[in-house]
Amino acid sequence: MTKTGNGSTLVITVAVMLAVVMQVLDLTIVNVALTYMQGSLQANSDQITWVLTSYMVANVIILPLTGLLVERYGQRTVMVWSVVGFVAASALCGQSHSLAEIVLWRLLQGVFGASLAPVGQTIMLGAYPAEKRGQAMAILGMGIMLGPILGPTLGGYLTDTLSWRWVFYVNIPFGILAFLLMQAVPDAGRSDHPRRVDWLGFGLMAAGLGGLQAVLSLGNQDNWFSSRMIIILSLVSALCMAFFLWRSLTISYPVVDLRLLRDRNLAIGSLGIAVFGLALFGVMVILPIMLENLMKYEAFTTGLAMAPQGLGAMAAMMVAGKLLGRNVNPRDIVLLGIFFGGLGTWYATLYNLNISVEWIVWPAFLRGIGLGLVSIPLFTLAFSTLKKPEQAEGSGIFNLMRTLGGGIGIAIVSTVMTEEQQVAWNQMGGHINAFSPALTRYMELLGTAQGPVFWHILGNVVLLSQSGMRGMLDAYNLVFYGFLVLVPLVFLFRRSGNGAQDARGTQDSPRH
Predict the structure, then answer these.
(1) Is 466:248 a contact under the CB 8 Å cutoff?
(2) For residue 332, is it within any domain?
(3) How far apart are CA 1 and CA 188, in angstroms?
(4) Is 174 found in the same domain as 302?
(5) Which of 152, 198, 207, 482 would staple 279 via disulfide (CB 3.0–4.6 Å)?
């Protein structure tokens, strides 16, 4: 790509950032509005979760097609139509009056939004000179990280002050501005001889990934393999994915070129970003539930309490970008990020129901520093030995693994919280004895006697809160171990010459 001037580079950066933040924001902004949507759309607590899962299913299915779309239509065309479709689907979501209607539009929203982040990354790589690509990825990474962190705060504010429909309508002005600025993006990436479309492979991939995401999203509420539907979905997903992998490795025009994973850095980076997705999205599930359900914070207050994590992440990303520009080894930056992220999560494993707000703010800030220091250098390492023509499709695979890692993380964390809460309930409840002196003293402190009111307080307030916190702590432990898993992966990356070379995404050197 021909390098653009500083003015054009700024316009391209703003356009890409608007599009990417808008798309990533929708992964979490809806969460705090689900309760309000449930009543308005006449759905029960299980049905309303399809508003979240339908979006992720569409994202997971379309993400691997990113390279093929760019090859056929070019980067600017893909971005422009993605923005237009995403904004239109957002408006349709906002005016929905039934569950089936909003699920349909969320699917469409996920289809159009899937390519925004990976194509945006490729555009940013081409718009900046080689020595500044680490900084460019830091800027884009700030947008990608800002979405999941800002989502609950913004969603809570819009829902409290306006209505849940505005969590979708807010995309319209940003989308229009992104569309106008997108005209400055060079239309690169199109191939004169695009690959044939493997429709059978696409069908197998769609069924496999869609089934997997459905299992992950619905497994916890349907008690996993006690449900016949979960068993069927799992079998269909496994068979389709097996045939998809076989077909992708044996034909000359696969829908996703999995042969790129022969590049060790891309393979390790994709696995690493999946584990990182577990840590990021796992925390985004645990913290709001703990603050709202157990500590009785309001939705907007919860978002404010989570803001320090975002501030730490953004500050760390800027630092990471500068360090990469000064040829600091990306592996060292990732290891430092793992330390801060693990430290912030370890502090969270010491929580109880009586903690002050400082115990929320400072560990979240430390954890945010860790997330910011890990994300950009990890992307840089993953692409350090990949040829430039392969970057678009490699970015699609990389972002697919981030989304899948987030989905798996949400499923695992939700299961741990639910199961361990029940275990804690049974353990603590088994020690309650109506003739216990300790129980008698507790009743005296409450100023009540044994009866319906007392047992209601004991069961639905005391035991529920304490067992819920036990479940949260076990989930935080899981996230903490997720950070530790990243450590050996960092040492498996192939060495590059220096940090600047890592940031460039080596255009001309052969892959190892």
Answers:
(1) no
(2) yes
(3) 7
(4) no
(5) 482
